Amino acid sequence: MSAQCEKVNSTSPAYEFGPKLKLLRSNDQVRELQTILRDKNTSRTDFKFYADRLIRLVIEESLNQLPFDTCMVMTPTGNYYKGTKYQRGNCGVSIVRSGEAMEQVRIS
């Protein structure tokens, strides 16, 4: 499990969504984004910008939950680098209308 994500335990109110739910760990950056989004004085342009940033954090953490394998690649300088790659391809599907907000961030 990623350091940016916390597992929901059975005493958490979020547990009603199932034991596999993971919450994005709250930190100062996430709280600032949430504050800007909740501020009634935030302009529409800023709201979209900061909502996209928060969505990007959620998508990035979701990708961190996928299985990886180690791999070796040759760098342009001829050295080998031990890295990681996804075990399988990944696919994102918008299943509700509001999910469309995440599509642009996911494909960029």
UniProtKB/TrEMBL annotation:
SUPFAM superfamilies linked: PRTase-like
Name of the molecule in the record: Uracil phosphoribosyltransferase
This protein's encoding gene: uprt_0
InterPro entries registered for this protein in UniProt: PRTase-like, PRTase_dom
This protein's UniProt keywords: Glycosyltransferase, Transferase
One Pfam family recorded for the sequence: UPRTase
Domain Phosphoribosyltransferase positions: 26-104
GO molecular function terms attached to this record: glycosyltransferase activity
